[in-house]
Amino acid sequence: MTVDPPLDEILDRACRAPSVHNTQPWRWRVRANQVDLFADLGRQLVHADPDARDLMISCGAALHHLQVAAAGLGWATRVSRLPHASDQQHIARVVLSATPPSPEAAELLEALGRRCTDRRRPTSWPVPSERLPLLASTGTAWGAQVLPVTSDARKAQLRRLTDRARRVQERDPRYVAEIAAWTSPSPSHGVPRTHVPRAMAHAGKGSPYGRFPSGVLDDPILETEPSEDAMLLVCTSSDDAIARVRAGEALSALWLKATQEGLSVVPLTQAVEVEETRRELREDVLGELAFPQAVVRVCWLPAAREGLPPTPRRPREEVVTYE
Q1: Which of 12, 13, 115, 241 is 20 to 30 Å apart from 313, CA to CA?
Q2: Which CATH number fits the domain 129-299, given the four candidates 3.65.10.10, 3.10.20.30, 3.40.109.10, 3.40.50.150?
């Protein structure tokens, strides 16, 4: 007896993927046991992300979430990335076949359900450096390079570049208006204000919080010591569309592993969105050996803090077409 894959459930879980400013810039086309993923350019941040780098990374994260969801529900995936070279909006074609789920796949699916972006203050507990190679290797297995940033000097440099990029962006009124438009109470439009901290005074240099208009989320000071976060750098050997998709898959993979480890992840994209800071990342930090795609902050959150509810997602009928 032929069993059909639970595609609605798989796609609902795939759509839980992180995306730049929660734009959710993807669409899916379903035909029997085949799923095609397309970039939704109508959700592009044209001023923050003019060449759609962040959009492609977001689609890569959704593609990885799809594979994790399918495996956790007992379905193997055969993936063709960018199956039509002339159509870079066609991100991937995925064919599903039944397979017994492994315990590891089930555990990863559970982590997918818990993953979120929490922009509130982290704790001052340091992230042990020995935890970073596991996160890095987990992401690297998906086709990008994930590099731990361990030296204090390098971490300080990444924070400076993030802050410099933020200041460049904030001088552009079109960028400011775009970010404000994508920070809203709408159930399917951007970062909800309920997930942005109310008081932004703590958003110091290089902070991921400073780019959003002030929200309504309480974020009381629980510690006076500064956070001891760790950092990772996601990069690729080329800078074409498929490299950016792979970077998104790597980002999703390391994020789910961090969730399993009890760690919080916040991507810092400002430094790769501004040409001058991205060039310095490539030349000075990477020695022109790779292209930076994302800076990732990893930290501990207070154990007593209540977790955030999932951010709303676009309605299924808006992102899925059945043929």
Answers
A1: 241
A2: 3.40.109.10
Q: What are 275-293's pLDDT values in tens digits?
A: 999 999 999 999 999 999 9
| Inter-CA distances, 279 with 1, 64, 98, 219, Å | 56, 28, 45, 34
Statement: 7-116+311-322 belongs to CATH 3.50.50.60: no
Measured distance CA(1)–CA(226) in Å, rounded: 59
Residue 104 sits at φ, ψ, to 5 deg, of -65, -40
pLDDT tens digits for range 147-183:
999 999 999 999 999 999 999 999 999 999 999 899 8
Nearest to 46 by CA among 222, 230, 172: 172
Q: What is the model's pTM?
A: 0.95
Tell me what pLDDT residue 210 has: 59
Distances (CA, A) of 142 to 4, 190, 295: 27, 27, 17
Higher pLDDT, 65 or 226: 65
Residue type, 144: A
Query: For residue 11, what are the contacts with CB-CB under 8 A and spacing of at least 6?
Result: 28, 30, 35, 66, 69, 316, 319, 320
Q: How far is CA 23 from the centre of its chain?
A: 11
Q: What are the start and end residues of each CATH 3.40.109.10 domain in the chain?
A: 7-116+311-322, 129-299
CA 203 to chain centre: 20
For residue 22, the model assigns a pLDDT of 94
Q: Are 299 and 227 in contact (CB under 8 A)?
A: yes
List helix spans (H) across 86-151: 103-114, 132-140
Amino acid code (one letter) for 145? Q
Structure tokens at 72: 């956790």
pLDDT digits (tens, 9 = 90+) for 211-256: 776 688 888 777 777 777 899 999 999 999 999 999 999 999 999 9
